[in-house]
Amino acid sequence: MRGSAAQAGNAVPGPRSGVWLLVGIVLVAANLRAALTGVGPLLPGIAASTGLSGTGIGLLSTLPLLTFAVTSPLVGRTAHRHGAPRTLFFSLAVLVAGLLVRSLPGVFFLFAGTVVVAAAIAYGNVLLPSVVKSTVPEDRIAQVTGLYVTAMGLLAALSSGISVPLAEHVPGGWRTALGGWAVLAVLAIGVWIPQYRRPRRVAATPATRERIPWRSPLAWQVSVFMGLQSLGFYTTIAWLPGIVHDHGVGEAAAGWQLFLFQIIGLVSSSVLPILVRRGLDQRLLAAAGSAIVAGGFALLAVAPQLAVVSSVLTGLGGGACLVLALSFQGQRAADASQAAALASMAQSVGYLVAAVGPLLLGALHDLTGGWTLPLLLLVALTLTQAAVGARAGRDRHLNSPSLVPTPIGD
């Protein structure tokens, strides 16, 4: 029964529909970061316009990650009930609404819209690994993941680079600059309509919903690796412009520094799939990528005048680690159903870990009056990530969920 269901759920689309599906996946991915990465360079302007304190700005930066953590466990149940294509379609519609609400005048709408935007993005974050697992051969998962991560990174980098110049030249300033990303979400909705109409028997949603593997050590290794690499990324997104600005760089130039970090990450995420094409054991890659990120943070701590080199290093290692973190959620699972359960766990735990980063770095900066101690803490956390990645990168699958005890109420 389960085998036949899995086969139906994993049916591979024909060439034409397969290309359309791939384009849809790429466009969905393009919406998963751009709406958030453009906020960092605009934070000084947002603070000046709204009167938010440093704590309020830190909360605004952390709120999406907390929303990811709370929303991710709910995705599997919703997708099981409505199907992954329809769930993604509605999440894109919610994303459009959230982007428009966030751009309305008033601090309430800024925070409320941020929560709605992050909740919609959480659905895409969780469901894309399952979609890829169910439609792509095992040895191609890293390549397709790399493709959609490339799209995600390209738009994220563009958002960081143009947000300040755009805010300076459009009516409505930063509110219009943030709300304008609704156009990209509407485009994704248009391309995703054929997947919405596709019969559920060929959709990328399993017929049975697997329980989240809370008691699997491998699942925890995947989740912690996801969390630590996300912590490094979102902390960089939130504070890199502020760090370089504190060392005499203008706001627009600080935004382009963040653009450089993400462009290097984009190049790295594009190249990594070539390196993993021949095997599914990525222990060395996960450890090496994490160590490179640690080196970038260390350099920024001791020689902030070399921030460009630091951005190159953190982008190089961070792009590789992002592809690995997402690939693990498919490769460490036995089937699409288990991939969805593992992705729910990895992204719930992962973003809860990541949420600590921007707040903790801001608090340490306020306490010490500088960035050295906060950055050295990032070095230590990223070295821990290297050790965890060496375990999560093993070529193994989770135990069958039916053999893993699961708490009642999961």
Describe the protein in words.
There is one protein chain. The protein is an all-alpha fold and 410 residues long. The protein has a single domain, classed as MFS general substrate transporter like domains (Growth Hormone, Chain: A, Up-down Bundle), CATH 1.20.1250. Helix content is 79%, strand content 0%. The chain contains 16 helices and no strands. α4 runs parallel beside α8 (141-169), α11 packs parallel to α15 (336-368) and α12 crosses α14 (307-331). The longest helix has 33 residues, at 336-368. This is MFS transporter.
Keywords:
single chain; 410 residues; mainly alpha; Growth Hormone, Chain: A; globular; disordered N terminus; disordered C terminus
The total strand number stands at 0
CATH architecture: Up-down Bundle
What is the helical fraction, as a range of percent?
over 70%
Radius of gyration: 20 Å
- Shape, please? globular
CATH homologous superfamily label: MFS general substrate transporter like domains
The total count of helices amounts to 16
Unreliable stretches covering 5 or more consecutive residues: 1-12, 201-207, 400-410
Strand % is under 5%
Q: How would a textbook summarize the main sheet? A: none
Reading off the top of the CATH hierarchy, the class is best stated as: Mainly Alpha
In total, how many domains does the architecture comprise?
1
CATH topology name, in short, is Growth Hormone, Chain: A
